[in-house]
Amino acid sequence: MTLHKGASPSDRKHSGHPVNPFYGEADPVAGMETAPPRHTLPDGPISPHTAYQFVHDELMLDGNSRLNLATFVTTWMEPQAGVLMADCRDKNMIDKDEYPRTAELEKRCVAMLADLWHAPDPAAAVGCSTTGSSEACMLAGMALKRRWMQRNKGRYPGQARPNLVMGANVQVCWEKFCNFWEVEARTVPMEGDRFHLDAASAAALCDENTIGVVAILGSTFDGSYEPVAEICAALDEVHRQHGWDVPVHVDGASGAMIAPFLDPELVWDFRLPRVASINTSGHKYGLVYPGVGWALWRDTEALPEELVFRVNYLGGDMPTFALNFSRPGAQVVAQYYTFLRLGRAGFRAVQQATRDVARSMAERIGALDDFRLLTQGDQLPVFAFTTADHVTAFDVFDVSRRMKERGWLIPAYTFPPDREDLSVLRVVCRNGFSMDLADLFLRDLEQLLPELREQPAPMRRPESVATAFHH
């Protein structure tokens, strides 16, 4: 949730702007003198057409979401999905007794994901929809901490402090979880050309107070998979040597909807007994508009029953495990539509096409003398690149700035500890980003390079540089 400041005194004195009289729908001179104030409620209503036009015109200044190569979030769905979402936007997802079919579709989605992720007994797996992966990660972290507390009833809440092991490349929601739920965040910094968590480093940070290890299937920094199976094997050895039974949560915000279709031989999911829970973002490579996510646990033992609230609400007994309450059922319905519409073969075709675009773009950019690839787009359909060592006239921030002039939103950012020295550009390919659009992107980039090469030096770097784009 973004925090906004209130209106300044000068804003409150502002009375409005002149209005084009043709904004009026029925009366061309109605509301001609002033527009509504920006930071205080207007004194009275205006026509729906006029209100629409004001809001619409301001939104024209937003970037084009289809050309946003920073976001992982789905920016295109079929019209039929949009109709279903409109049909369900007024249904409160929490009112399962009033909207039993919407609740049934949520259960079916959980069952489908449990089967897709090889739960030992899909019928015994438990899960829920969320507003996105951030909420799903918070719920998974809560379950990890509560399980640790149950195992350590004799010592907690004494001097023992729980900790969570993860790479420095984790999504910011894990930092929030550790802050909000008073868990020590033990992060493994990047080192050399290792840009994510490795098995040895994860095992080395564990102790009797470790509630779990977070393994990321698809780092937002460069699109690479973390070695989940190797991490689990290292923790198996920790268990044998020390008796510490450390569970693993797989943050599959993106990769959990890529690997099952394109990398079926990769073992990362519930086939590994140490994997206790998995999350994904339905609104990323689950191909649904924001916001919907999913959290699944391998069985009821992995999700302590005491965390599940049973509420007698609107005439029915309703089990719920969530950080929010009311939210629309539209995204859950859209997720079920997408599962039904595509099936395994359809998902495989869509994700393969997206990976093909990413690999093609990476290969062509890597062939340019000005850049050096960090990843190839062969895991997530995402790749990162930086300027070549000999390039001194411009940097990645110049490239990002100049491409934005042509409508392309491509993030430039620095890596986390201990590779703050490395600044990169990252391209996220999604469904709807075609090879034709990739050709247009490459054409614009190549046309800019002669101008960038003529610069005397890189332009001033932004005062505040984001360390990643976690969306």
Overview of the structural elements:
It is built from 12 helices and 13 strands. With 471 residues, it is an alpha/beta fold. The strands form 3 sheets. The protein has a 7-stranded mixed β-sheet with strand order 1-7-6-5-4-2-3, with helices on both faces. A 4-stranded antiparallel β-sheet has the order 10-11-13-12. The chain has a two-stranded antiparallel ribbon with strand order 8-9. The protein starts with 8 loop residues before the first helix and ends in an 18-residue tail after the last helix.
Shape: globular
Mean pLDDT comes to 89
Distance between the termini: 13 Å
Biggest sheet, strands in spatial order?
1-7-6-5-4-2-3
Which segments are poorly predicted (pLDDT under 50) over 5 or more consecutive residues? Answer: 467-471
Secondary-structure element order, N to C: HHHHEHEHEHEHEHEEEEHEEHEEH
Return Rg in Å: 25 Å
The assigned structural class equals: alpha/beta
Query: Helical proportion?
Result: 25-40%
Number of helices: 12
Bin the strand percentage.
5-15%
Tell me the total number of β-strands: 13
Describe the main β-sheet briefly. Answer: 7 strands, mixed
Essential attributes:
471 residues; alpha/beta; seven-stranded mixed β-sheet; four-stranded antiparallel β-sheet; 13 strands; disordered C terminus
Short summary:
By secondary structure, the protein is an alpha/beta fold. It has helices spanning 9-13, 48-59, 79-88, 100-116, 133-151, 172-180, 199-204, 228-242, 259-262, 330-366, 396-405, 435-453; strands at residues 126-130, 163-167, 184-188, 210-216, 248-251, 275-281, 293-297, 309-313, 316-320, 371-373, 382-387, 412-414, 423-428.
